[in-house]
Amino acid sequence: MQARKQQLEYDVDLCEKKLDRATKLIGGLGGEKTRWTEVAKKLGEDYINLTGDVLLSSGFIAYLGAFTITYRERASRKWQELCKQERIPCSEHFRCAAAAGWCALAHVRGPTRRVCADWALLRGGMDLPPFRSCG
Question: Which band of pLDDT confidence, cut at 50, 70 and 90, is reported for residue 101?
Fold first, then answer.
């Protein structure tokens, strides 16, 4: 009889722990729903802007690699304006590296540091000459 009582107490304690863990898990997943809803909304916007962003990225990579950051940014803004005039959807704040889904970390004569992602994308991620950060 004593062994049965101990087993039941153990089972009750185990059940309480499982219930507590399940409550915490469900509470955590509730927050995930909000986050996933926001991510889905952002992906929907990105999907709408995909055509213009790919167009701008292609032009950026094909034509602007040899120019300074200032010129590339000015040309990029001008191209965005042209896309809007032609009703081609594109991101409000277009960045070539963001459109490519790429984050640049490049080794620049010393420890790794964050550099202009667009510059590193154009250079193919290779070691770059000393260059001011544009982040």
Answer: low
Cα–Cα distance for residue pair 127/111, rounded to 1 Å? 12
Distance (Å) of CA 57 to CA 47, 61, 63, 118 = 15, 6, 10, 10
What fold does the segment set 2-101 form as a domain?
Histone Acetyltransferase; Chain A (1.20.920)
CA triple 131-134-135, angle to 5 deg: 130
60, 99 in Cβ contact below 8 A?
no
CATH 1.20.920.20 residue ranges of the chain are: 2-101
* 107/123 Cα distance (integer angstroms): 12
Is the whole-model pTM more than 0.70?
no
